[in-house]
Amino acid sequence: MEDGVCSRIYVKGGGGCSGESGGGGGKGSGSSKCGRWNPTAEQVKVLTELFRSGLRTPSSDQIQKISHHLSFYGKIESKNVFYWFQNHKARERQKRRKLSLPQQQHFILPPSSNLQRMFVFHLLFIPQFI
Predict the structure, then answer these.
(1) Which part of the chain is the Homeobox domain (predicted)?
(2) In the CATH hierarchy, which fold is given to the domain comprising 37-100?
(3) Torsions phi, psi for 126 (to 5 deg)
(4) Strand (E) or helix (H) holding 9
(5) How many helices (H) and strands (E) does the chain have?
(6) Of 26, 50, 53, 122, which sees the most CB atoms within 10 A?
(7) What number of other Cβ atoms are within 10 A of residue 4's Cβ?
(8) Residues 12 and 4: beta-carbon distance below 8 Å
(9) Structure pTM?
């Protein structure tokens, strides 16, 4: 290891670094600097405030500035900021969809419903006189 940079290779989905000695080095052990980025509470607070203030897709210049500012609270890279905003935006979208779904559900009929078949038949074969 040189200058605090992990010299081992991170194996995606493997839960740690290849070349780790022993079974440790996982989450919370503090023995390895490889693996996923774990934001500090301060970093999450700043990122959340930026998101709530309307910043949804920061430019690469903004990402650089944000990651520089957040580096005072702990280890962070620009890609962490980029992916945080991407993930946060996607989760917000999921929440909105989930919240709007119950209001729409009472209009959706199961595919095998006779009522739905009649409705489709009515739409397709009975001419509308308006």
Answers:
(1) 30-95
(2) Arc Repressor Mutant, subunit A (1.10.10)
(3) -100, 120
(4) strand 9-11
(5) 4, 2
(6) 50
(7) 7
(8) no
(9) 0.56
Contacts of 75 (CB under 8 A, 6+ apart): 33, 37
Domain ranges of the chain: 1-36, 37-100
What's the token pair of residue 31?
């023995």
Residues of the chain with pLDDT under 70: 1-34, 102-130
Three-state secondary-structure class, residue 67: helix
Amino acid at 73: Y
Structure tokens at 67: 């990651």
pLDDT score of 111? 57
pLDDT value of position 54:
95
pLDDT of residue 100: 86
Q: What is the pLDDT of residue 101?
A: 73
Residues of the chain above pLDDT 70, percent: 52
Largest CA distance in the chain: 80
Span between the terminal Cα atoms of the chain, in Å: 78
